[in-house]
Amino acid sequence: MKSLSVPVDRGATAGTVRAFQLLGVPVRLHFTFILLLLFLVVTALGYESTAVFAMFILGLFASVLLHEVAHAAVGKHFKIRTLEIVMFPIGGLSRMERRLRPREELWISLAGPLANLLVAVGIFWYVVSTKQAISVQPSDLLHPSGGKLLALLGFANFLLAGFNLVPAFPMDGGRLLRALLSFVRPEDEATRIAAWMGRVVAFGLGLYGLVQGEFMLVFFAFFIWLGAAQESAAATGRTLTNGIPVRAAMITEFHHLEHGDTVRDAANLLLSTSQQDFPVMHGDDVIGLLDRNRLLRALASEGPDAYVAGVMDRDYLALEPAADLAETLPLMARAGRCALVQEGTHLVGLLTTDNLSEFLLLRRFGMEPVI
User: How far is CA 236 from CA 173, 182, 233, 324, 364, in A?
Assistant: First the structure.
C-alpha cells in the first residue's frame, strides 16, 4: 500500500518550471518571476551599461538564493528536508517537507535575513578596506553604476534583510512573529494574527505606492496580500480539521474503472456522472488513478481506444482513513484534486478538493462530522 506521502515530482508548486538544482534542492521559477525577468531584460536593453545592470541583477538573484539556502541549511540541522526553492517576484520560498514547530520556525526564519546581513557586512568591509566608493542612495538601485556596484549589492542585502524582517506574512518576520506567539497562543491563532499584520502592511504599501505613483510597490503589496490570505486560509482549515480523521470527509459512493477499460469507457463515465476522478482497479486491488485532465490528454494523444491502464497515474496519493485530516491539507494542495483512501489494500473512499471544500464550509457553520 502507498504511504501518506507525495512524490517529489508531484510536489512541485503550481505555475513553476524547474531551473536547476542547488545542494540537492530543486530551484524552480514561478511564471511571475519569469515575467519580471523579461521586464528587466527589456529595461536593460535601453540602459547605458547593460553589462553592469546584468551583473547587478545576477548579484541580487544570488543574494536571494543564498537567503533561501540558509533556510534550507538550518532546516537540515533540524533534520527537515527542503522539498524545493521557488523564486517569486518578491523573493524566494523554501518549502519544507512538514509543518515547523515554533522553535524550528524561529531559527529557520532568522537564518535567511542573517545570511543577507552577513553578506552586506562582508561586502562593506571589503569596500572600505579597498577604499572604494561606499556612498549609495536608494535611487541608485534603479541605475547601478560600475563604480558603486559592490556597495549597491551590500546595500541591497541590507534591504533584503530588513524587508524580510517586517512582522507580517509572507515575509520571514511574519513567521518569526507566529513562532514567538505560538509559545503563548495556539498556533492557528498566532497564524491569523501574523496574517492580519500582513494584510495591514500590504494595504499600507499599496496605498503609498498608488499615491506616490510607485507601481512596483503596488505590485509587491499585491503579492504580500495574497501570501497573507493564503496563510490565514490555511490556519482556518487546520482549525476546522484538526483531530478529525479522513474518513469523516471522504466520498464513499463512487465509480471505478477496470484495468481493461478504454479511454472511451472512461469518457462515457465522465459524462454520465458528476465524478471527475476514477480509481482504476485490477480485481480488488487499486493500480492507479485517472483524473479528468489525464483523460482529456489521453483522448487527444492516444485516442478513445487506448486502455486506461496505459494512461493512468500510478503514483497517486493514498491516505489512511484514520489519518488526521489537518495533516492531509498540504498534501492535497500539492498532489492534485483527488486522493484515494485505502484501508490496507482495500479502497474505502475518495477525498477530493471539492468535497473537502464543502466539508470545511459545513464545519464553519457548526456542523459536527460523523466519525
Answer: 21, 15, 5, 15, 9
